[in-house]
Amino acid sequence: MTTNTASRQISVPVTLIPPMRAIYRRLTYCAFLVLSAVAEASPKLYIFDCGLLSFEDISRFSVENHETDVRQMFVPCYLIEHEEGRLLWDAGLPLDIAGSGPVDRRPGTWISYDVSIVDQLSTLGLTPGDIDYLAVSHLHFDHAGGVKAFADSTLLIQQAEYEAAFQRAEEISGYEPPLYSALEDSDRVLLNGDHDVYSDGTVRIISTPGHTPGHQVLLVNLPETGPIVLSGDLYHFEESRAWRRVPTFNVDAEQTLASMDKLERLLEETGATLWIEHNLELANELRKAPGFYE
Question: Whole-model pTM?
Answer without folding.
Answer: 0.86
